[in-house]
Description:
Helix content: 55-70%
Low-confidence stretches: 303-308, 338-358
Structural class: mainly alpha
Mean pLDDT: 81
Order of helices and strands: HHHHHHHHHHHEEHHEHE
Amino acid sequence: xxxxxxxxxxxxxxxxxxxxxxxxxxxxxxxxxxxxxxxxxxxxxxxxxxxxxxxxxxxxxxxxxxxxxxxxxxxxxxxxxxxxxxxxxxxxxxxxxxxxxxxxxxxxxxxxxxxxxxxxxxxxxxxxxxxxxxxxxxxxxxxxxxxxxxxxxxxxxxxxxxxxxxxxxxxxxxxxxxxxxxxxxxxxxxxxxxxxxxxxxxxxxxxxxxxxxxxxxxxxxxxxxxxxxxxxxxxxxxxxxxxxxxxxxxxxxxxxxxxxxxxxxxxxxxxxxxxxxxxxxxxxxxxxxxxxxxxxxxxxxxxxxxxxxxxxxxxxxxxxxxxxxxxxxxxxxxxxxxxxxxxxxxxxxxxxxxxxxx
Length: 358
């Protein structure tokens, strides 16, 4: 197709293909001038423009629907929190009239008026949670979590909460902001600094990226030294098992980061040795699971005494902080440096991981 033809010049100056039916007009005007190849090019151009317009319209619609969905979710959070707050303040709609209002009332169990009224509030909240869970088909623990996160956002992150209500922040990022803010102490100044630090990122980042930014912001604004926080947090160390599909289970261990890195290093050292053995067909992931469960179940492995291990702490400092142009905190990562033995000790059988229970 001749790029200097009046048709091409016209196509480049068109404002909107959908204002009028220009295809019919141009077909009539240039019917005698266009050859077969020019007509095919023209039809391909029109189809491309229509496809692009359709895609743009679909993406715009997706943006609008996403905003509406976020607003609806934020509104749902707000209503849930308000219902539970009202149930706590006025239990009567949920548990009936207050018997303590009668001057002649007396409790056969000998409980005080304040105690009975407190129990009425608790029962009212339970009833409201059960009703909400049944209506929304969600677990009661989820209802409590939503109400708690809403209260945290309202009190500690008003900017994030306002953006959430306006549809600019996703429910995932709102939940992350609430959970991280809840881990801050009762310090209004720290709350305000945290809210300002994460408000913009909450609108732009994916949940995984926002979680990293929120954790970094928490470290930056936290008024307590890390040593004190770490000592207190170690009190929450625990281990639990979660059932999975098809007879499997996941063991979760929450402990000191240095200890966790050292334990993983010990496991990996044994796995590296087993991978070097002839006939080994298990993947690294499978070997790590087998080695870990054997260590937990049996207490030690034949390779344990031969695997030197040391824990290394890697500290990453942002470049702008090093240059004195920023105040972003450094991050520390614990990992274990282990070297598997080159050969098995003489007279010792290679350990092949988990063995069947008789």
